[in-house]
């Protein structure tokens, strides 16, 4: 049997190779499920609670995505977990006016610092619903703990997704700073040009005055 290679498969293979080369040239590498920039290949992790569950979840995401955790340093990018908070909101009630269903909201605040590029602060939120059955108090407590643990895992994944967008964020910041510098330079050049033109006008106006004084002096001498 002859092996048959269709033009469509050749085009598909060429496209995959082209995308791989473009990914490598842009300074990105596939780590886990996300394309993380080379700037955070080594990353330090600090937290409000070094032994908390959120800290452990983020650290496990580091291992999953090939990020090498290092000690904090001024030359190393840093991910700092600022705080975590769990709040709840009543969604429905029983007939006796007791809360039957809650919406749990887990909020994490964190900051990313990249030396030479700047820092950015973010807030991530995860929502889950929770049924409050008064007849199963123990099971309810266990279920809530499991839900909160799942919310921490989801928040850690969202932090990794934000890290994947980090290069685009800092590139945008650099573009905005460059535009601001160019605008400032253009304004200063415009001010210098205006001041130069004003100086020339003043000088041009002062010359006829000198000529008039000379002419008047000559008239006085001729009269004498």
Automatic annotation (TrEMBL):
Chain residue ranges for the region called Disordered: 181-224
Database matches in InterPro entries: LPS_assembly_LptE
Subcellular location: Cell outer membrane
Biased composition range(s): Polar residues: 207-224
Highest taxon, organism lineage: Bacteria
Signal peptide coordinates: none
Pfam family for this entry, one: LptE
Keywords assigned by UniProt, alphabetized: Cell outer membrane, Lipoprotein, Membrane, Palmitate, Signal
Presence of the UniProt keyword Lipoprotein in the record: yes
Bilayer topology term: Lipid-anchor
Its biological purpose: Together with LptD, is involved in the assembly of lipopolysaccharide (LPS) at the surface of the outer membrane. Required for the proper assembly of LptD. Binds LPS and may serve as the LPS recognition site at the outer membrane.
HAMAP family in alphabetical order: LPS_assembly_LptE (MF_01186)
Family to which this protein belongs: Belongs to the LptE lipoprotein family.
Assembly: Component of the lipopolysaccharide transport and assembly complex. Interacts with LptD.
Protein's name according to its UniProt entry: LPS-assembly lipoprotein LptE
Native source species: Photobacterium rosenbergii
Organism phylogeny: Bacteria, Pseudomonadati, Pseudomonadota, Gammaproteobacteria, Vibrionales
């Amino acid at each position: 049997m002859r092996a048959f290679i269709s033009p469509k498969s050749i085009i598909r293979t060429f496209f995959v190779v082209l995308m791989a080369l473009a990914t490598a040239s842009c300074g990105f590498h596939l780590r886990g499920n996300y394309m993380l920039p080379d700037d955070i290949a080594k990353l330090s992790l600090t937290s409000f609670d070094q032994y908390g569950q959120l800290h452990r979840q983020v650290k496990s995401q580091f291992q999953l995505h090939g990020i090498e955790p290092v000690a904090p340093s001024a030359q190393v990018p840093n991910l700092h977990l600022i705080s975590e908070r769990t709040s709840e909101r009543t969604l429905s009630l029983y007939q006796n006016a007791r809360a039957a269903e809650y919406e749990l909201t887990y909020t994490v605040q964190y900051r990313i610092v990249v030396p030479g590029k700047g820092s950015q602060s973010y807030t991530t939120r995860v929502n889950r619903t929770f049924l409050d059955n008064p007849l199963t108090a123990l099971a309810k407590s266990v279920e809530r703990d499991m839900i909160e643990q799942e919310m921490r895992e989801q928040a850690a994944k969202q932090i990794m997704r934000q890290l994947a967008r980090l290069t685009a964020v800092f590139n945008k910041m650099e573009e905005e700073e460059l535009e601001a510098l160019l605008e400032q330079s253009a304004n200063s050049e415009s001010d210098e040009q205006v001041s130069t033109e004003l100086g020339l006008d003043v000088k041009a106006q002062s010359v006829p005055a000198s000529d008039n004084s000379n002419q008047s002096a000559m008239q006085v001498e001729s009269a004498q």
